[in-house]
Amino acid sequence: MFKRIRKAFLTGLLLVLPSAVTIYFLWVGLKWVDGLLIKPLNALFGIQIPGLGLILLFIFITLVGVLGTNFLVKKLWAYYERLARRIPLVGSIYGTVKQLTETLSSKDKLVFRSVVMVEYPRTGVYATGFLLGEPLGGLPDNYREVFVPTVPNPTSGFLVNFPEKDLIYLDLSVEDALKYFVSIGVVKPDKNRGKKEG
Question: How far is CA 18 from CA 7, 39, 43, 46, 153, in A?
């Protein structure tokens, strides 16, 4: 009886927790933005509108996006990025987040052609990676270049060359694979069936 209750509780927790954490962080973020942006407005005009901070933040980010297409703003932003990357700790965090957002929002689907599994780093051990294409040179034509990312930061990893016959192609999108890596394997894709080609 106790085991069944415990199992039901854990199942319910797994179902409720993601939504609860998401709502909590959205609420904390909303309160933080409201507190940061609305207090000066309250002091000036004596008005208080819940959620106004979020609206102002949306407008600010949109304006930054519009100005970001300007040549002068691009130059200033590039200077700011170079400066941010030189600051210890801040630079590594900024660089990682920047690379990750660029990877996730990239419209160029040819960067990662498909998701594959390879026998790496030794025989009997398998790693999931992204198929890039043909290697730089010096290898037979049947070799393919595979990027094996590190977890939970898939913007770094190992570039390894494998014979095409050794690649196991997964029925998995690049986006789902990135979610899997970033979540340290917690977020499992719906489809992870593999088939060996070659």
Answer: 18, 31, 37, 37, 21
